Every structure is written in structure tokens, then in C-alpha cells.
């Protein structure tokens, strides 16, 4: 029988009975959780103070061979499985049935460890409330930046400080894709296929390339950092599907790298959270984050700037974070006590994305004749957007560095000083109307300068 309300399992003199662990899902992450539970059985028992016994693994398809997993543990009866566990590890993903199963597990007195950022971002209040009512733990270190300890530092280590800003790369797939585009010249679709094969991508990689996964992580981090519920709908989200090989090549020519960034800020007016691709100066530490690695800067009032870096996706790195949580919740089962509950007391207002202040780089194809630059500059000035730098390539330059045949065109690269999203959007719309402007080729934010 599970020990509800986090009660210790027995007096110190009694031998500890095994804690029953149920696993929901046995794919990329789940198989690695089974491996760690199995291979590190003795160490885990010593660290927890009681053995951890895997009592079942819920899957959809019993016929799939799963390396290192005892077939006798596999079941399609996930609902039955969660009723007979002390700890439920949810790595099936998606909203349902994951949410219902986790709620059933909690109601039955089990603590829950999950990597499911999509569900947490969509409905963490329901899960928090259920866990608090049942007196059990809800842990989710693996939901943000996989192996990197980030949830715990934000939720616990920095709980005595005031976090002002979080900026970083929180999606391994898109970082891998952008990196492959920049370093190997791969196109986006091929790079995404590789990320899928390597186990980095979500079941539907649209979640990655569309920025949904990063937005979910940003909402989770911002909620923890600012003690405020940050609904997913309040996160401004842009993915990388609009990023072309041309954008990546031009980023390099102008001393930048394209990265998908998550940025959460607390200002005097409230909280702003956004996810979008941005140009990062090649000299910035984020520019050196390659492959599926993640890196996140956290800026707190007293601590100053902290940087967290490591593997942000993949089975084993994610399983590492999950097992850390399993040990924590298992220790609570053995020794008593509980992990943190939801902290939402600050209840700060959400700010619209249009208020976000950033520098921008825009690339324009324009008529190569006198006066064009001053026309464009006038539009920028008219909208209160100040120019930091202008560069002109004589003609549009192709991907391979070949100049395009249209000899009467020039390519303008304009970097602005900081402006609001709203001012920039109005500026770009007005520039696009100019007769001398053939095409607004791209507009990208510049961060980290
Ligand atoms: P996979 O698609 O590889 O595995 C999902 C597993 O869940 C499969 O074993 C599948 O069963 C099982 N499953 C799905 N739906 C059901 C259901 N209705 N009933 C029973 N079993 C079900 O996903 P991942 O391992 O990559 O990801 C799992 C979770 O971890 C997701 O929430 C993801 O966002 C998160 N995560 C993933 C990371 C990664 O790098 N992959 C990193 C951090 C978090 P079957 O095998 O029979 O199809
Ligand atoms: N698909 C996710 C990513 C997995 O690529 O970052 C880790 O959360």
C-alpha cells in the first residue's frame, strides 16, 4: 500500500520496504529511465534509503522490442498500473491520457515525476492542486532543458533572491537544426529528420520547429521565477520555420549566429515572456552552444548572472534529470517531508509582446540608385527607430556567395538601436510600401549584444 501524505514508510529500526515505481511510457526517455533504474539499483537504494522496484511499464504497443526492458513488466493497462505505485514517472507525453493518469496516481497517494512540459504549461495548476491536496510531490526537472539542473535552481536555490531575467536556448532540436544549417549547410527539413533520428525531437517535431516546446518551457520557467502563473497563451511564440539558409548565411557575414531564444523578463510593469529566433553576436557565449545543447542565463538581483549549460535533449540526459527527481521524491517517502508546492503569490500582470524592446536587423532589396538610403532612413526616423549601423552589398548575394543577376538592385542590411516590437512592425510595414524597396527580405531581432 502506498504511504499517502508523504508519511515515512517505517520507524528507523525497521527494514525499508521497496518503493514501487511505475513508468508511463517507454520510448526514447523511458528506456533510459529503465536502464538507470536497473543498472544503478544498488546505488539508488543506498542514496534513497530503500530499494526502488520497477513494478510496471505502460506502453501502447506490447509487440515493440525494448532493449533492456523485461517484457513481463510491460502493460497497456496504465490506469491499473498507477494504482499500485508509490512513485509514478510519466514519460508518455501529450495532454491526455497523461493528465488523467497523473491525477489518478496522485489521488492514490503516489508522488509524480514528469518530463511533460506540454502538459505542465497547459495545466500545471490542476496538477499542483491535486498534489498539494494529496500531500505528495510533483517534480519536473526534466521538463526544461533535459539534463541541466535548472528547475531546481530557479524553484529552490534562488527562492531567496529576486530573478529579473532568464534568457537562453531551451530547445535542443532547433538548436541542432540551426547549427547544422550554419555549419553543414543542411536544409531545415533534413536537419529536423536527423534530430528525430537522434531522439531530440518531440513526437510531432512541429512542437520544436514551431517554437511551441520552447514556449512551454519558457512558461514553466517564468512561472517559477516570478512566482506568477504564466499561461502558455501569454508567451509570444515564433518558431524557426521562417528561417532560411540565406538568413543563416547573412547572420554569419554580419558576425552573428541565429538561435531560437526564450526570454522571460520581470519589469516594474509586469512579466514578459517570448520565444523567437534572434541574431546573437558570434562573440556571445550563446553563439558557442552547438548541437542539441541548451544554455540558459539567469539574472537575479543578488546572485547576479548565472549560466546553466548542458545537454538539452536526448534519452539519457533526460533520464538523468528524471532519476534525480525520483531520488528526491523517494527520499521524502523514506524520511518524510515534501518538495516545494506551487508559488504564485506575486500574481504579476502579463505584458504584451508588442511592448518588448529589442534591437533588430532588417535586410532589404532596394533599387540601387541615389537617395534610397535616405528614404529608408526617413521612415525609420519617422517611427522613432534609430539606426545603429547600415551596410550595403552592391547587389543581392546568393547562398553560394554569387551575386544575383539583377544589377540594378542593392541589398541593405540595417541594424537598429533598441525599439519596441510595435514600433518596428509599423516601420517595416511603411518601408515595404516604398517604391524603391523591392522586398523586405527578413527582419530578425538581435539579442545578447
Ligand atoms: P517517445 O515518443 O519516444 O515515447 C513515448 C512513449 O510513451 C512510448 O513508449 C509510447 O508507447 C508511450 N505512450 C504514448 N502514449 C501512450 C498511451 N496513451 N498509453 C500508453 N503508452 C503511451 O517520447 P520521448 O521518450 O521522446 O518523450 C517522452 C516525454 O518526455 C515527452 O513528454 C517529451 O516531451 C519529454 N521529453 C523528451 C525529451 C527528449 O529528448 N526526447 C527531453 C525532455 C523531455 P509505444 O512505445 O508503445 O508507442
Ligand atoms: N524536443 C525537445 C528539445 C526535447 O528538442 O529540446 C527536450 O525537451
Question: What features would you describe in this structure?
Answer:
- It is a single chain.
- The protein has 449 residues and is an alpha/beta fold.
- The protein folds into 3 domains: 19-146 and 316-335, Rossmann fold (3-Layer(aba) Sandwich); 161-311, 2-Layer Sandwich (Dihydrodipicolinate Reductase, domain 2), CATH 3.30.360.10; 356-446, 2-Layer Sandwich (Alpha-Beta Plaits), CATH 3.30.70.260.
- The protein has helices at 28-39, 41-48, 78-82, 98-107, 117-134, 151-157, 172-184, 188-197, 206-209, 212-226, 245-253, 315-335, 372-382, 421-433; strands at 19-24, 52-58, 74-75, 87-90, 111-114, 138-139, 163-169, 236-237, 256-266, 271-281, 293-300, 304-311, 357-367, 387-393, 409-416, 419-420, 437-446.
- 47% of the residues are buried.
- The model is unreliable at 1-8 (pLDDT under 50).
- NADPH dihydro-nicotinamide-adenine-dinucleotide phosphate binds at residues 25-30, 58-61, 64, 78, 91-93, 97, 115-117, 142, 146, 199-200, 202-203, 313-314, 318.
CATH architecture of the largest domain: 2-Layer Sandwich
Q: What is the straight-line distance between the termini? A: 56 Å
- Strand proportion, as a percent range, falls in 15-25%
The CATH topology of the largest domain corresponds to Dihydrodipicolinate Reductase, domain 2
Question: What kind of sheet is the major sheet?
Answer: 11 strands, mixed
Q: Helical content, roughly?
A: 25-40%
Count of spatially separate domains? 3
Number of strands: 17
Give start-end ranges of low-pLDDT stretches: 1-8
Count up the helices.
Answer: 14
What small-molecule ligands were found?
A: NADPH dihydro-nicotinamide-adenine-dinucleotide phosphate, L-homoserine
What radius of gyration results from the CA coordinates? 25 Å
The CATH fourth-level homologous superfamily of the largest domain: Dihydrodipicolinate Reductase, domain 2
Shape estimate: elongated
Mean pLDDT: 94
Structural class, by secondary structure, is: alpha/beta
CATH class of the largest domain: Alpha Beta
